[in-house]
Task: inverse folding
């Protein structure tokens, strides 16, 4: 069995998807449609801009989705579409890419939702008040306990359960710093403050969740062609109403990626295709499901290797 997985924020690079757009008209069409949906040339920023501007949340989110969908459309052009997958999943914003690939959301709606999501998440907390940190070498339960113990009157919580030894915490800047220091004292190999501009996947994102609830209420969501493994539940979902609700919960909830991959492996998935920019998910998956095969699809060469 096979799962298609889609990356989240942090995988962005200048030039991502350009080779695909040059090699596959269907991939080029993705960038054109995203540009039209947003009313601007996001593709020009992706291919010719500067990384600081691309990394802005409101740009990175639709840009990464565009790169993933360009790779997916190229796969389709080679006869390797959604029928090749038994499940889809995505890390944070990648969940939107997964839903788009599975036919649950239109490309245009996905682009507009991610632009709004990025803006709303950035505006939810004033710049400088929030932070995130990656804790390496401790398991989720340990980091979760440390976050609870060090929060005080502020917010800090385990935001991303990425793999057995990588947990990301999120919240008020000083609380995140306290929790990171406590994690080091508890034996963490490293505690790295992340270069992000907002405390994603924490309760501080509640204003953004409210914005997304309103936006998603007006968007058509179809049952996906294959089940989605939802971030906040780490379990399969196909019912549109449940998908809508879980996408709202995802803004403030923990990304349960480790559990999602464990559950996929237990369901019989032995092969994962990471579709889009970067290889971050592949590294996580190899540390979670050690027997699984992982393939990256982000360039024409990657697709030719699949066919070969």
Result:
């Amino acid at each position: 069995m096979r799962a298609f997985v889609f990356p989240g924020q942090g995988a962005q690079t200048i030039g991502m998807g350009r080779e695909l757009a040059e090699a596959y008209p269907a991939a080029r069409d993705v960038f054109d449609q995203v540009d039209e949906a947003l009313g601007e040339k996001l593709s020009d920023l992706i291919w010719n801009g500067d990384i600081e501007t691309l990394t802005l949340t409101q740009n990175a989110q639709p840009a990464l989705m565009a790169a993933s969908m360009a790779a997916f459309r190229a796969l389709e052009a080679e006869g390797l579409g959604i029928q090749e997958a038994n499940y889809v999943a995505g890390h944070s914003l990648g969940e939107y890419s997964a839903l788009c690939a599975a036919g649950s959301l239109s490309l245009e709606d996905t682009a507009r939702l991610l632009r709004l999501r990025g803006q709303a998440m950035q505006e939810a907390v004033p710049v400088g008040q929030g932070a995130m940190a990656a804790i390496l070498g401790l398991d989720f339960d340990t980091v979760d306990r440390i976050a609870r113990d060090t929060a005080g009157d502020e917010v800090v919580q385990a935001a991303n359960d990425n793999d057995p030894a990588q947990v990301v915490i999120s919240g008020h800047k000083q609380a995140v710093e306290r929790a990171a220091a406590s994690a080091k004292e508890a034996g963490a190999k490293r505690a790295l403050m992340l270069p992000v501009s907002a405390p994603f996947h924490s309760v501080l994102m509640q204003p953004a969740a409210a914005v997304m609830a309103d936006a998603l209420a007006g968007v058509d969501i179809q049952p996906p062609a294959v089940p989605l493994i939802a971030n906040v539940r780490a379990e399969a979902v196909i019912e549109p109403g449940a998908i809508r609700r879980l996408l709202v919960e995802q803004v403030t909830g923990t990304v349960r990626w480790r559990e999602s991959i464990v559950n996929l492996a237990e369901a019989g998935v032995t092969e994962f295709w990471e579709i889009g920019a970067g290889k971050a998910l592949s590294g996580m998956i190899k540390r979670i499901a050690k027997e699984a095969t992982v393939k990256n699809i982000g360039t024409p060469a990657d697709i030719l290797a699949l066919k070969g």
Remarks:
- The chain is about 50% helix and 15% strand.
